[in-house]
Automatic annotation (TrEMBL):
Protein's name according to its UniProt entry: GTPase Era
Biological role stated in the UniProt entry: An essential GTPase that binds both GDP and GTP, with rapid nucleotide exchange. Plays a role in 16S rRNA processing and 30S ribosomal subunit biogenesis and possibly also in cell cycle regulation and energy metabolism.
Subunit (UniProt): Monomer.
Era-type G domain span: 3-170
Organism this protein belongs to: Gemmiger gallinarum
Family indicated by similarity: Belongs to the TRAFAC class TrmE-Era-EngA-EngB-Septin-like GTPase superfamily. Era GTPase family.
Region (G2): 37-41
Residues bound to GTP: 11-18, 58-62, 119-122
Length: 296
């Protein structure tokens, strides 16, 4: 009998939700950088193992909102709890719990089953520290169990599917068995361009950029896709930094993104990137709607 398990991955920014999603799916569905708040929308990774289909929802990091975009991201993470069979809440291997994390733990008390995941165990040097961390999380009294793993090197990741399986509901698979995400190719391309911008630009700019794909056309006469992308920023000075001296930074972003796009699409890509200014778009409800940031 077929069944589906819907799983939300929640946790603070940079705790490894996207890395774990990609690791479990075996494909890059969520962009990953060292910068917090890389994930902005809910991203779905799909894994079908025989009769069981696992639908993993990678959500934005839970943090104190500083603008309307942040508020939408935090609401998206919280709203995801209502849509799933089980929640995986990821924790750092050490350090204090944040106010946002404690709020999420309280929300899980009312939301249904949850499993805690201590990620980045490859960074811990002794077993006692891990056991102490697990004990602290167990004391919340909301998690069915506490797992320890490393999304980076794969330690403990293979066990997750067997642990999630009992939470599934009998019924048809909601996605094709060979699907690995519900994101359209256009959105995946936009995310790859934003990932490269996050990797190469200085800290103050990346969260002020949004990326949209304006055109995506396959050439009928050759194995080539022409893609035109617009990168929106909030300041004239930011536009200069994204383009760089003699256009060097924009070329670097476009070149790295093009290589990933070609791997994703399995064909040659002609990628054109343009930079435009939309002042304070992160605090403008209409701009957020236009740029595709859905209200949860």
């Amino acid at each position: 009998m077929t069944s589906s398990v819907f799983v939300a991955l929640v946790g603070r920014p940079n705790v490894g939700k996207s890395s774990l999603t990609n690791r479990l799916v075996g494909e890059k569905v969520a962009i990953v950088t060292q910068k917090p708040q890389t994930t902005r929308n809910r991203i779905m990774g799909i894994v079908t193992k025989g009769p069981v289909q696992y639908v993993l929802m990678d959500t934005p990091g839970i943090h104190k909102p500083r603008n309307k975009l942040d508020a939408r991201m935090t609401q998206t993470a919280s709203a995801s709890l209502a849509d799933v069979d089980v929640t995986l809440m990821l924790f750092e291997p050490a350090g204090d719990f944040t106010e946002s994390e404690l709020t999420m733990v309280e929300a899980l008390r009312k939301a249904g089953p949850a499993i805690a995941v201590v990620n980045k165990v490859d960074l811990l040097s002794d077993f006692a520290a891990l056991e102490a961390r697990k004990k602290k999380i167990e004391e919340f009294g909301v998690f069915d169990r506490v797992l320890a793993l490393s999304a980076r090197d794969g330690t403990g990741c293979d066990d997750i599917f067997a642990i999630l399986k009992p939470y599934g509901s009998p019924g048809p698979h909601y996605f094709d068995d060979d699907a690995y995400t519900d994101l359209p190719e256009k959105e995946l391309v936009a995310e790859l361009v934003r990932e490269k911008a996050l990797l190469f630009l200085r800290d103050e700019i990346p969260h002020g950029i949004a990326v949209t794909v304006e055109s995506f056309k396959e050439r009928p006469d050759k194995d080539l896709i022409d893609i035109s992308v617009e990168i929106y920023c909030e300041r004239k000075s930011h536009k200069g930094m994204i383009i760089g001296k003699g256009g060097q930074m924009l070329k670097k972003i476009a070149s790295a993104a093009r290589a990933d796009c070609e791997e994703l699409l399995g064909t040659k890509v002609n990628l054109q990137c343009w930079v435009k200014i939309r002042e304070d778009w992160r605090d403008n409800e209409r701009q957020l709607d236009n740029l595709g940031f859905a209200k949860p």
